[in-house]
């Protein structure tokens, strides 16, 4: 067996999963399964949010150790799913090691068509406004606010802005648009419902889920980092909307939000 | 009842599109949406029954965990795909907004009320997910084993037989 190729395959799978926002234990689990197919005595894997270390060693095999730093972190469930399928097929003996490696190399995210992708945040916002019990006017207002939200998110993606600044900027736009719409439509709409629905595409649902699962699995370092991420995102959203309300709310609404 | 139906559809639309936002594979979008709609439905039923938001969130997240684990095993996909959608109806977007709102109005007591409630809801979600994860870990030792694990165990068994 080509142990170096095995290590490369496992490391590539782990790297792609961690970069796509998989939970830490899932990355460790997948790499462990792949490396275990070598039937060596020593298989050690250490995954934290910022890097992976893996080592295999056996009686007649010199130790092979790889270190991989992880710099970009996003959320892309389709990549996780594809890597999962490949590793499952490899561990099940359906495909050879070389083929697994080649397939992993070819994995890429299948983005939704950009025309459709533009309206996704809008659809999320409208869906949540409906489920929060919004009236027809609320939904209408959310469509307007959601269009601005979609526009800002699409614009930020082309400009390459992400992270906290994006959260603050988009939620600021949500707050601003909501105040403007409220000042035009007046008492017909419920500002709370519109704003809560519209910030839902931004809330750190992924970060919260992963934070919980990582922490309770015992991966405390990754868990802490993700809890911090969730809190910062929530704070950024509150900050953006709050600034918009504080600055423009009083001017347009005369202090009667 | 009609209102709950409409809201459930709202949750379905929201979670379905949120799954697209995080780039879930196309074939699982419907299932993620169902997971979210079911969790939202349970949440609303609990609220109707007069329970508070924290307890309702707990039951909702518990239902989301159960459904997600079943879907993950039935469809052989990572459980995250369904779980993220499932807990979305209880993720405290409302809490974030209310905290910000009351801080802005200088109403410290209401702000700290919502801050505590938001933390409690987050805790309830965590507990629910943890319970379901643990439960399915136990069940997995029986007949529900995930495929990748079963393969490995088979290999190891072969190895033992050789010896």
TrEMBL record, chain A:
Residues 9-247 form the Threonine/serine exporter-like N-terminal domain. Keywords: Cell membrane, Membrane, Transmembrane, Transmembrane helix. It is a multi-pass membrane protein. The chain crosses the membrane at residues 115-133, 139-156, 163-181, 187-209, 230-253. This is Threonine/serine exporter family protein. It is found in: Cell membrane. Its main location: membrane. It comes from the Bacteria. Pfam families: ThrE (PF06738). Belongs to the ThrE exporter (TC 2.A.79) family.
Automatic annotation (TrEMBL), chain B:
One of its GO terms (biological process) is succinate transport. It is a multi-pass membrane protein. The chain crosses the membrane at residues 6-23, 28-45, 51-72, 79-100, 112-136. Residues 8-134 form the Threonine/Serine exporter ThrE domain. One of its GO terms (cellular component) is plasma membrane. InterPro entries: ThrE_2, ThrE_Dicarb/AminoAcid_Exp. Keywords: Cell inner membrane, Cell membrane, Membrane, Transmembrane, Transmembrane helix. Pfam families: ThrE_2. It is found in: Cell membrane. Its main location: membrane. Belongs to the ThrE exporter (TC 2.A.79) family. This is Membrane protein. It comes from Sellimonas catena.
């Amino acid at each position: 067996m080509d142990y170096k190729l095995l290590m490369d395959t496992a490391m590539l799978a782990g790297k792609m999963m961690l970069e796509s926002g998989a939970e830490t234990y899932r990355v460790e689990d997948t790499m462990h399964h792949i490396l275990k197919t070598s039937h060596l005595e020593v298989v050690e894997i250490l995954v934290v949010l910022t890097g992976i270390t893996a080592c295999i060693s056996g009686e007649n095999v010199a130790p092979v150790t790889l270190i991989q730093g992880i710099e970009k972190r996003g959320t892309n469930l389709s990549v996780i799913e594809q890597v999962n399928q490949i590793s499952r097929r490899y561990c099940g003996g359906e495909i050879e090691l070389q083929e697994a490696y080649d397939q992993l190399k070819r994995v890429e995210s299948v983005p939704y068509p950009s025309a459709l992708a533009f309206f996704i945040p809008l659809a999320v916002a409208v869906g949540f406004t409906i489920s929060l019990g919004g009236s027809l006017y609320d939904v209408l207002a959310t469509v307007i606010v959601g269009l601005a939200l979609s526009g800002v998110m699409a614009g930020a993606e082309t400009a390459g802005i992400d992270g906290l600044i994006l959260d603050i900027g988009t939620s600021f736009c949500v707050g601003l648009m909501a105040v403007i719409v409220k000042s035009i439509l007046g008492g017909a709409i419920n500002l709370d419902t519109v704003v809560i629905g519209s910030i839902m595409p931004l809330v750190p649902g992924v970060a919260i889920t992963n934070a919980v699962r990582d922490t309770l699995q015992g991966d405390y370092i990754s868990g802490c980092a993700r809890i911090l991420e969730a809190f910062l995102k929530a704070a950024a959203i509150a900050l953006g909307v709050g600034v918009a309300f504080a600055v423009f709310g009083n001017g347009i609404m005369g202090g009667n939000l | 009842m009609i209102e709950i139906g409409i809201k459930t559809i709202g949750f379905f639309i929201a979670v379905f599109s949120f799954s697209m936002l995080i780039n879930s594979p196309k074939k699982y979008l419907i299932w993620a949406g169902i997971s979210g709609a079911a969790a939202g439905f349970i949440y609303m039923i609990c609220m109707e029954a007069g329970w508070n938001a924290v307890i309702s969130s707990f039951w909702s997240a518990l239902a989301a965990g159960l459904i997600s684990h079943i879907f993950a095993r039935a469809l052989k996909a990572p459980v995250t795909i369904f779980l993220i959608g499932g807990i979305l109806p209880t993720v405290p977007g409302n809490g974030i907004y209310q905290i910000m709102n009351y801080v802005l109005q200088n109403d410290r007591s209401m702000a700290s009320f919502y801050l505590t409630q938001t933390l409690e809801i987050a805790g309830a979600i965590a507990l629910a997910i943890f319970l379901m994860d643990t439960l399915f870990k136990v069940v997995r030792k029986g007949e529900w084993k995930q495929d990748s694990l079963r393969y490995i165990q088979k290999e190891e068994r072969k190895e033992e037989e050789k010896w």
